[in-house]
Write a structure and sequence with these properties.
The chain is about 40% helix and about 15% strand. By secondary structure, it is of the alpha/beta class. The structure holds pyridoxal-5'-phosphate. The site of pyridoxal-5'-phosphate (PLP) has 15 residues, from helix 4.
């Protein structure tokens, strides 16, 4: 595979940007080698600057559920741009996106648009602390909620790939407000409540974990957290930045039938442009300025381009049969990997929820961070490069999700399955 132009660009980028990238996992630190610099995407395919073509299972880390350059989204963005790219004043489009979101997620009675998932979780936690009047929060080992200071504690994928438990630059006094429980382990949560009586404002959780690879909640786990938080006077925050509009039109909360107090969104709701949102019970959201004493703002919040892309994307997703098709494609992807593993005697575990899946080089079951962390990352790196050089683009880390989009075809998945089998065959023993 010729990557000469990417190599040249990567060398120049490394002089100007840490690791040559604007977000760490893009640097291929976990798998080695030069990241292809991408030039173009269309549907389920992307092309790099050297002209190599790939079937894409990264989907920009989740947002591109309609595939690249979806014509409806592109047209919406072009039209919006022609009408002005930002006003810093209210627009009708923001209201339309809010109506689409709250229509699909009835637990969100009131909401705010922001510009990233990081801002969404940071702001939701601020509202939770303001409402409950306590300062500590519980998060789960291996869950990622963006890079706000207090959330960079045992935060899965990016940090795990680079071996950082808690980020440098986060004051210990601040990290001490974040308590860490084990995913799918209710006792670990109960212990934290018992040791911190009346101090915990909220639990924040990825209701389907996506940042330690895909790890679904054990049956009853989310329901138990719902009951526990109510008993303890704390709030339950679902970080659905990945799972929102991915695992179903009504998110993980709809799929598992658990109603959180607050929800964080991002990725898909921006249709590939920078957006986030947080919202929930009205009495909590009334804490936000200008109604309440908790400040939160944004110059580009509700940006017309991003909001237009979001409206187009959510409108497409609301059409009948969309999630059935996504689930069907996800099942095909999973079957392809399983069949290749059986045929080649390769030990892997596939976790999947709908159109999101992870192939772990580890034994089943994988329900906790420590089980995920047991995966053979060196073998994954080998597999990753085996796929890349065969024209299949996946996440450059064991602890990430693969995403199938509506633009993927049965042929794409058959092609990918063949390459998975070839990549398995070429793994060292
Ligand atoms: C991606 C992600 C975030 C952060 O969103 P950004 O837009 O990257 O800031 C937060 N939570 C979860 C679950 C995510 O997957």
């Amino acid at each position: 595979m010729n990557l000469s132009r990417s190599e040249e660009l990567f060398e120049r980028s490394q002089k100007l940007m840490p690791g040559g990238v604007n977000s760490p996992v893009r640097s291929f630190g976990g798998v080695g080698g030069t990241p292809p610099f991408l030039a173009r995407g269309n549907g389920s395919h992307v092309w790099d600057v050297d002209g190599n073509e790939y079937v894409d299972f990264l989907g920009s880390w989740g947002p591109l559920i309609l595939g690249h350059a979806n014509p409806v989204v592109v047209e919406a963005v072009q039209k919006a741009a022609a009408d002005g790219t930002s006003f810093g004043a209210p627009t009708e489009k923001e209201l339309l996106l809010a109506e689409l979101i709250t229509g699909a997620l009835p637990s969100i009675e009131m909401m705010r648009l922001v510009s990233s998932g990081t801002e969404a979780t940071m702001s939701a936690i601020r509202m939770a602390r303001a409402f409950v009047g306590r300062s500590k929060i519980i998060k789960f080992n291996g869950n990622y909620h963006g890079h706000a200071d207090g959330l960079l504690v045992k935060a899965g994928s990016g940090m795990a790939t680079h071996g950082v438990p808690t980020s440098a630059g986060v004051p210990e006094s601040y990290a001490a407000e974040t308590l860490v429980a084990e995913y799918n382990d209710l006792d670990s949560v109960k212990e934290l409540f018992a040791a911190n009586v009346n101090q915990i404002a909220a639990i924040i959780i990825e209701p389907v974990a996506g940042n330690m690879g895909i790890v679904p909640p054990n049956p009853g786990f989310l329901q138990a957290l719902r009951k526990l938080t109510r008993d303890e006077g704390a709030l339950l925050i679902f970080d659905e930045v990945i799972s929102g509009f991915r695992v179903g039109l009504h998110g993980a909360q709809g799929l598992y039938g658990v109603t959180p107090d607050l929800t964080c969104l991002g990725k898909i709701i921006g249709g590939g442009l920078p957006v986030g949102a947080y919202g929930g019970r009205e009495e909590i959201m009334r804490m936000a300025a200008p109604l309440g004493p908790a400040y939160q703002a944004g110059t580009l919040s509700g940006n017309p381009l991003a909001v237009s892309a979001g409206i187009a994307c959510l409108t497409e997703l609301g059409k009948p049969g969309v999630y059935e098709r996504l689930n069907e494609l996800g099942a095909l992807a999973e079957q392809g990997v399983r069949a290749a593993a059986d045929a080649t005697g390769t030990q892997v575990t596939v976790n999947r929820v709908g159109s999101a899946f992870t192939t772990f080089f580890a034994e089943a079951p994988i329900t906790t961070w420590s089980e995920a962390a047991d995966a053979d990352t060196e073998r994954y790196a080998n597999y990753f490069h085996g796929l890349l050089e065969r024209g299949v683009y996946t996440a450059p880390s064991q602890f990430e999700a693969g995403f199938v989009s509506l633009a993927h075809t049965d042929d794409d998945l058959a092609f990918a399955a063949d390459q998975v089998r070839a990549a398995f065959e070429s793994l060292p023993n």
